[in-house]
Design goal:
It contains 22 helices and 27 strands. It is an alpha/beta fold.
């Protein structure tokens, strides 16, 4: 592994990279070519992203600094310096969020007849009806509290909307100023639609819930004079802490920790920017926060709640045009999906291809009398999941087994409910391997076919078994009966339910057992091909790239002559284009209408290409701390679709792609060298694949790649081979205890 002193040169900062990712999402909110409600949605996503980041990553950094850790991170900086830099970036980013809201989105919404009004802007009729709504729907749910010796400061829940009020008793005009605190229930909408809104025309007036409550404080605090008021919310440390090995019941332990999460230490205070300084100071002292942990909000204190507008305003012209995914049809003369899979594999690219075949595969297996066993992993799913219904129905007539990941972050409570309900229905429920999250996406049906042969049929995917998110996450599904794959899927389930390990799961790559070393071998093999003058190229698409051993292997492959294209949606600590290190590596990020979630790994392999799909990013947590599966695409037609359609489209994107620079920053692909002055919107991979699914496009529309700059490699093939062998000989080191969790 590279020494820490060299990290700053070899690795970009993780936290800076994450902020860069959220800035790319914010760019979509500012992009006037996107419909206005989609822009509001993008801004809401940046707020949601930031909330999760503060609860987990920022909280983790605070813990490390408070515990006295000094080990440098990816960028070579100790935790305190990383924390200081991150805090400054977050304040700057929050300012950018509210500039976007106040200066760009609010004015355009007004132009479209959608107004967010202050109390003073309301008509008399609107004020009267708003007050009536408050008395009817809001006031009965509120519990005003005044802080005094008999009433200590309430335990404010994580990210709950609250109001702080400075109060003075009317009978004692010279008496002390006391603090009141009011928590607004989560069940209430954060935006209240006002009378006078014209639903037929789509014109709507709203008022912030926090403003409506603030106007009615005197009715709750009778006998007090309201001196000042301010809306705020507190973000708490939401990491879960428990020892699985010592837990008598994993389910009960997680349920207990979920309760504790609501009460974790405060790590951020958001408060309206015009808050009285005395209110700010009293809250800061109460929550034991440094001044740098106070963030001023020039508008709604929870931008994630702006998603409300997207669902509440019925104006399709202000959103992306509706898209209907392509439906899957069985081949002629084929009776069912099982007969289809005995002839060929089925590759689906969601959301361009409907998710129905995956649901139908599981549902049909549940009712098919020839299916004798069903096994499935569940990481996240929807509240009305057809997967849940199928598994519970199957349990009545056959063996049904599910491996539930209870620790799917922020879905723990939902998964606990699913697990208990399925157990009650007779499903065998397992919680995976102690100490490891189960993140792989697998389903297996064992069927006694019409010819008397018992076969395994499997679904393997890159995304969760969630029909809802499948409509706006890009993922890939493989349905197959290939014995080489399905037999190993069976062995993976044995590992998950009985911790029964085998030495080799090929052709599958299985974490934490074989995946890291298998990937490194594949990268080294490309370096050897390049050194020997054979075709060598790597194209890898993932959500994040953080694992140092993978990055070092890619650097070595680049130096050996391998052309490498990385499509990394989010955090990437590899530095592309560094002279003498990564000149042949290009990194792009695509942020668009759909959330890029698929993981694809292509290796040219001297002309005998191999393509893998799976659930794992190249991160320490995926490679060493989770049960993950990456699987090969062996069917010729499926492989050709990825090679000729999917990857070329992503690499040709000039509309929504950003190119990572040597310093860790990003520029739009349309502004890269050779594209300056572009007058057309550019090529959008997502738009192209939607049109392709609708039958309105063909592969000839994918722009041909520009010629790559000539990067000199030593002409001595034997010397290149020796260099490649030297550079790639290092085995993947297990992450330092605790470091992988801190980086996940």
């Amino acid at each position: 592994m590279v020494k820490n002193t060299q990290h700053k040169k070899l690795f970009a900062g993780r936290d800076k990279s994450w902020i860069q990712f959220n800035r790319r999402v914010l760019e979509e909110a500012s992009d006037a070519t996107n419909p206005i409600l989609e822009r509001v949605k993008f801004l809401a996503i940046t707020g949601s992203n930031l909330d999760e980041y503060v609860e987990i990553r920022l909280a983790g950094l605070l813990q490390r600094t408070e515990d006295g850790h000094t080990e440098p991170g990816y960028d070579g900086l100790p935790p305190q310096e990383s924390l200081d830099a991150l805090t400054a970036e977050m304040h700057d980013f929050m300012d950018a969020q509210y500039r976007c809201w106040n200066e760009e989105l609010l004015p355009e919404l007004r132009q479209k007849g959608i107004r967010l009004l202050a109390w003073d802007e309301l008509s008399d009729e609107q004020k009267e009806l708003a007050h009536a709504y408050y008395l009817r729907e809001i006031d009965p749910l509120l519990t005003p509290i005044t802080i005094d010796p008999a009433h200590p400061f309430p335990r404010v829940l994580n990210r709950a909307l609250c109001l702080a009020i400075l109060l003075r008793a009317k009978r004692r005009s010279s008496g002390p100023v006391v603090l009141g605190v009011l928590t607004v229930p989560r069940a209430l909408p954060r935006f209240v639609k006002l009378a006078g809104s014209n639903a037929a025309s789509g014109c709507c007036d709203y008022i912030l819930l926090q403003d409506l409550v603030a106007q009615n404080l005197s009715g709750m605090y009778r006998g007090y004079e309201v001196l000042a008021k301010a809306a705020f919310r507190v973000t708490r440390n939401s990491n879960l802490y428990f020892e699985e090995e010592e837990a008598r019941s994993l389910l009960e332990s997680i349920r207990s920790e979920l309760h504790n999460r609501r009460k974790g230490d405060a790590v951020r205070l958001e408060i309206v920017s015009d808050a009285d300084s005395e209110i700010v100071d009293r809250l800061r002292v109460n929550f034991e926060l440094h001044e740098s942990q106070i963030y001023l909000a020039d508008g709604p204190v929870n931008l994630a709640r702006l998603m409300f507008f997207y669902g509440d305003i019925p104006r399709p012209e202000l959103k992306f045009p509706a898209f209907v995914p392509k439906q899957f049809n069985l081949s002629r003369s084929v009776a069912d999906i099982f007969e289809e899979l005995r002839h060929r594999d089925v590759l689906l690219h969601h959301p361009y291809d409907s998710y129905d075949p995956v649901v139908n595969f599981i549902s049909q297996g549940a009712i098919d009398p020839r299916v004798v066993t069903m096994k499935q992993t569940l990481y996240r799913t929807s509240t009305d999941s057809p997967m849940f219904e199928a598994l519970t129905e199957a349990a009545a007539s056959k063996e049904a087994t599910v491996v539930v990941e209870l620790m799917a972050r922020f879905d723990e409570a939902s998964n606990i409910r699913w697990a208990r309900s399925m157990e009650d229905a007779g499903v065998q429920v397992f919680y995976g391997v102690v100490g490891l999250k189960t993140h792989c996406k697998l389903a297996m049906l064992v069927r006694r076919d019409e010819d008397g042969v018992t076969r395994r049929y499997c679904h393997l995917g890159t995304g969760n078994y969630n029909p809802v998110t499948a409509r706006f996450y890009t993922d890939l599904s493989l349905l197959t009966s290939d014995p080489a794959i399905t037999e190993q899927v069976h062995m993976v389930f044995n590992y998950l339910t009985a911790h029964a390990e085998i030495d080799d799961y090929k052709p599958l790559l299985v974490a934490p057992l074989t995946m890291a070393e298998n990937f490194l071998q594949l990268i080294r093999r490309e370096a050897e091909h390049a050194a020997a003058g054979r075709t060598a190229r790597i194209v890898a698409k993932m959500n994040a790239l953080l694992e140092p051993s993978m990055i070092e292997a890619l650097y070595a492959a680049s130096q050996a002559g391998v052309e490498i294209d990385l499509i990394v949606r989010g955090v990437c600590t590899l530095r592309p284009g560094v002279k003498g290190l990564s000149e042949r590596i290009r990194v792009r990020s695509i942020i668009g209408r759909f959330l890029e979630h698929s993981r694809i790994f292509h290796f040219a392999n001297g002309g005998h290409e191999e393509i893998y799909l799976g659930s794992a990013d190249w991160m320490p947590r995926n490679l060493f701390e989770r049960c993950e599966v990456v699987f090969p695409v062996r069917d010729k037609a499926a492989k050709a679709r990825i090679h000729d359609e999917i990857l070329p489209a992503y690499l040709a994107d000039t509309a929504k792609a950003r190119l990572m620079q040597e310093d860790g920053g990003y520029i739009r692909a349309s502004s890269a060298k050779g594209d300056a002055g572009r007058k057309t919107p550019g090529f959008s991979s997502q738009q192209f694949m939607m049109r392709l699914a609708e039958g309105k496009a063909d592969l000839t529309e994918i722009p041909k790649p520009a010629a790559k700059a000539d990067v000199k490699v030593d002409g001595d093939v034997s010397k290149n081979a020796a260099t490649a062998e030297k550079l790639t000989a290092e085995k993947p080191a297990a992450p330092v205890k605790g470091s992988a969790k801190a980086s996940s």
